[in-house]
Amino acid sequence: PLQFDYSNSSGNRPVLKLNPYSWTKIANIIFLDAPVGTGFSYATTWTAYDNSDTSSAAQTYEFLRKWLMAHPKFLTNPLYITGDSYSGVIVPIIVKEVYDGNEAGREPPMNLKGYVLGNPVTCEVKDISQRIPYGHKTALISDELYEATKTDCNGDYVNVDPTNGACLTDLEMVSICLEKIYLAQILEPMCSFLSPNHTKLKWSRSILQENIINVVSMPLQSRPWCRNYNYLYSYIWANDRNVQEALHIREGTKPEWDRCNESLSYTKDVLNSVVYHRYLSKTSLRALIYSGDHDLAIPYIGTLDWIRSLNLTLLGPWAPWFVNGQVAGYSILYSKNNKYDLTYTTIKGGGHTAPEYKPKECFSMVDRWFSYYPL
């Protein structure tokens, strides 16, 4: 419901304002820090911090069960599991856990209706490989370089044969083309402190890496705008003692809040979550998948690719949808056995992740979808 008022924030005093496009206006939302160790979540033993995709999903399911048993008035509410980015791996597992629990008669029964995923990671190798065709589609990579890379690398741009010199040379050229592009939104400026040296750059599986610099004390007029600067306010705000007391954070459980805790002991034991989508496509659930169409980290063409692999029935053509008379994105609707339905849409101009860049359009999207209206 709140967001940072960047234009009126300065130094170590972030200013908050109401978010007119908060999804809390249309739904009761549980915001969950998971896996354990992220956000303000913590464990009481060191071994409890050892986590994985599957164990994190199982823990989230157990949390939901206990929370709903403690708050039974919400049991009849329609339940949607949502997430974005790496949640594209975790959320389908959680949805399967909830669905299977209902089928097995576990208490409490949950009124599961579907799931929502934004800019979702699905198979890291395939997602990253799609950056090259996406870069070609958006004129970041030339026709000649794209065709040479596709041929020399046999379409595999991640698990490259180290003896394939032609492929490695092509990928070095691709890296030079993409190194100064902001992966999260290709039209936005890349922070100077994030710009790598192309002589040291290698084509890697790293999606997004953030470095923090002390820019909050610089006058707004004297620094070039960069979206990553905005994230610094979350560190200041979340680590403020008064804020933590207001949020009822248990003192001493979290020495410092990190936006992205890279020290987690975490095992990625699900390398491709499509198998879970395929399982869920045999149910009567609903799914909404959306992508910012300017996201180079998880390109929309890769998301469309795995959706098509589900062999669903196409219910309508690729078509624009509108907010205030303007094109907000392009959507397509699929179904299976007239029970499961999946809506996929791009968010025009959106990045990684789309609601951060296009809050009005994403609010309209989810409001219409929750209400069973066409986008």
UniProtKB/TrEMBL annotation:
SUPFAM superfamilies reported in the protein's UniProt record: alpha/beta-Hydrolases
Coiled coil: none
Keyword Cell membrane tagged: no
Gene3D superfamilies: alpha/beta hydrolase
GO biological process: proteolysis; secondary metabolic process
An annotated Gene Ontology molecular function: acyltransferase activity, transferring groups other than amino-acyl groups
One Pfam family matching this protein: Peptidase_S10
Keywords for this protein: Carboxypeptidase, Glycoprotein, Hydrolase, Protease, Signal
Database matches in PANTHER family: SERINE CARBOXYPEPTIDASE-LIKE 7 ISOFORM X1 (PTHR11802:SF224), SERINE PROTEASE FAMILY S10 SERINE CARBOXYPEPTIDASE (PTHR11802)
Family membership noted in the UniProt record: Belongs to the peptidase S10 family.
Protein's name according to its UniProt entry: Serine carboxypeptidase-like 18
